[in-house]
Amino acid sequence: MSNVIRVLALSLLALGMFIYPQEVLSSAGGGLTLWWRFVLPALLPFFILSELLMASGFVHFLGVLLESFMRPVFRLPGKAAFVVAMGYTSGFPMGAVLTARLRSDGEITREEGERLLAFTNNPSPGFMFGAVASGMLGKPTLGILLAGSVYLANLIVGFLFRFYRVTPGPQHTASLPSIKRAWQEMKNAQTRDKRTFGQVLGDAIRQSTNTVLMVAGFMAIFSVILRLLNLWHITLILASLSHSIIRIIEIPVLQAFYNGLFEMTLGCQEVIQALSMLDQQVALLALLMGWGGLSVFAQVAGLISGTDLRFSTFLIARVLHALIALGLSQLFLLVAEVPAWTMPVRIADPSVFFWNTWHISSLVFIGCMSVLAILAFVGVRRSRT
Fold first, then answer.
1. CA 291, CA 287: separation in Å to the nearest integer?
2. Quick count: other Cβ atoms within 10 Å of Cβ 100?
3. How many CB atoms lie within 10 A of CB 303?
4. Which of 1, 11, 68, 201 could lock onto 174 through a cystine, CB 3.0 to 4.6 A?
5. For the chain, how long is the longest CA-to-CA vector?
6. Quick one: DSSP state of residue 345?
7. What span, in angstroms and rounded, lies between the C-alpha atoms of 45 and 47?
8. How far is the CA of 6 from the CAs of 11, 12, 79, 262, 380, in angstroms?
């Protein structure tokens, strides 16, 4: 039965692409434009950097130093801290890429991989600050509120998932950090990797480019699918049916919500157009960015398909993340003073988008690595006393 449904769905997709060729080209081009402006600069440099750091043994070095922090808080090995930092830096789907890599290499167990996958996937800081806060809302300062809601909600999800599939057997004990032992672990990892630096760099660039191009393909095809769903009024029908049950919410808002469930960016744009009150806009924006969209789901499913990680865990985490991010955004609005002024929304030069996105991601990366360095330093000092 599932095969029949799959064939019918693909046949409808092919039929729609033949009937609406101009709309298909336009929507695919829009998805690729978004990829070029925000995803490529936020992902490619950090994909390459993460591959180089993992090959150099830095992840093993960091794992020894941060084991005493990650185990008690998240029930994860210290190596997972690197995935958290990179996931917060680059956004979707960096967390899934690195989690699948650690699981394939046997560095983490199945349950640890699913815990890690649950809270290392979120929109990139460049998207939240540049595309949504500045570009769509015209209020750059709201980027701090939105990013804070999404990031803090992710950490809360990570803490909740420390109770996920806890076995009654012998538990891991967090060893005290030791720079000497961390250095030895890094040297051992370098010894096991027989590749020269040229090979490592070439492999890092090739793998990173393939992954980023795969993301571009997902974004293009899901932009086409969502465009066809709107042309066939599928999301409008869903919104109308929902409105008959929940009459307090207007149909345009529900349609924007359903569009956001399929594709986050278009949903964010339509939410801002459908709602006039700032608190309602921020609530739904935080909800949709915590959810991520089916395009992101497909990316993650494809990336973990070569492992034994269960996708259902990721789905549950997305629901929790969306709801917690919504609640935190409203709490922050109560205590924060949002400036009344709004800057004019305009389409900037693509090179400016590219630079700003990379710049914001770089700052977040520096901040994450600084926090990890402080935690490692505190752990070493405590182990010596």
1. 6
2. 21
3. 23
4. 68
5. 72
6. P
7. 6
8. 9, 10, 39, 18, 54
